[in-house]
Amino acid sequence: MGISQRSLIGAWTLLTVLSGRTEAAPWLHLGSCVLAKDPQTELDATPGFSACARGRAGAEITATFGNANDNHWIQHADGSLGLYYSDWLGLLGRAQFRETRGLGRAPGSPDRLVAPEYFLVQLGNPALDRFRVEVGRVDVPFGVGLSEASASYRSYEDHRFWDGPQYGVTLTVDNKVNTRFDVGYATDDFSRLTKAQLEAPTAPPEAPVAPGIGSTDLRSRGGAKSGASARLAHDVSALDGSRLIVSGYGENHGERRMGFAFVNVSRRDDLTLFEFARRQVRPDGQAQAFSQVLRLAYLSAWRDEGRFVGQFDDERFRFRAGTFGREVRLFGHAVLSLHVSYRKSETGDEMKRWQFTSGVEARL
Q1: 266, 269, 270, 272: CA torsion to nearest 10
Q2: Helix segments in the chain, DSSP class H
Q3: Taking CA 146 as the corner, what is the angle to CA 278 and CA 149, rounded to the nearest 5 degrees?
Q4: What are the tens digits of pLDDT across the range 193-243?
Q5: Which of 10, 100, 201, 320 has the smallest number of CB atoms closer than 10 Å to its CB?
């Protein structure tokens, strides 16, 4: 079940054209998807059927100082669509595409990822209802996993800190004041998993995933994979407005995860994130080494059509890395970006890399 880059870009182009025809299609909302009336304050504001579409497509080129073999080109796109049949029933989906092509002295075949992220039925309105249920291809509720760094920088991260089985159900309980609780259960069949989901994330030669923390041990055991998770978020007034998040996850094959995150949004809408997650393949944590990630991220608000993006990651056994960049918005839908990144291997080979990434995106 996949979609091509051409389909994503074509859909984005079509929706961009439609964005100039909102009077002919008042049910269609693009980008920010803001309703004309607030259903919380206006009794006649129930939207009925409506649709919300978002998407972006772009390309990046990365130059590595001191090692031309690591130079690469990335094309990427992602898009989401929500169809809302009433104020309590919706159908939501999101998919992504990424193709990485080496530009070194002996470039190999491109590394390509085409995959749906989720496709589900949602019962309940996030803005109005205290209870919400999602059924289908879901994201298990664990941690935050937020990253607005360049696609090149994100391609090195290990998504297994946040991913899990795909088909299941999640329940959200929200007091609409300061506390939210998510719980989920999902299952999968290894025979249906894609290569990208079963193997380690894209990583440079100097930073392979450490032995003992991969998923090959789970594949050798075979059978279906199922997991349950829970996530508790609580808002506090410290530092203008902050959220504390605690998560836990367990699988029938033995994998265990725990996580903690702190998110702050300032009065100027600048976002700061600290996240910690630990993953161990065996419950006792002794048969195989555990892995963990520490992430510190900063995302400024858009000011004068520009914003700053910064991130630092420390993945045990793999690397320590940081990036800082500037994004500039042009003509409302185009974004130009420049990022500088540094990555130091933690595998004992002492390799270090400075990288410079420039990119362009079209955003809806």
Answers
A1: 60
A2: 5-18, 151-154, 195-198, 216-221
A3: 115
A4: 444 444 444 444 333 333 333 333 444 445 688 999 999 999 999 888 999
A5: 10
What is the pTM assigned to this prediction? 0.80
Residue with tokens 């050798």: 220
The upper half-sphere exposure of residue 119, i.e. CA atoms within 13 Å in the direction of its Cβ, equals 6
CA distances from 325 to 149, 155, 338 (A): 8, 16, 5
Query: What are the strands, taking DSSP E only, across the chain?
Result: 28-30, 50-65, 72-84, 89-102, 111-123, 131-137, 167-174, 179-189, 224-236, 242-251, 256-265, 271-280, 291-299, 306-315, 319-330, 334-345, 352-363
d(CA 218, CA 224) in angstroms, rounded, equals 10
Query: Which tokens sit at 178?
Result: 């300061």
Q: Cα separation of 75 and 57, whole Å?
A: 8
Distance separating alpha carbons of residues 23 and 29, to the nearest angstrom:
11
Instruction: Give CA–CA dist 77/9, Å, rounded.
Output: 7
Which one, of 38, 127, 37, lies nearest residue 82 by Cα? 127
Q: What angle do CA 160, 54, 233 make, to 5 degrees?
A: 50
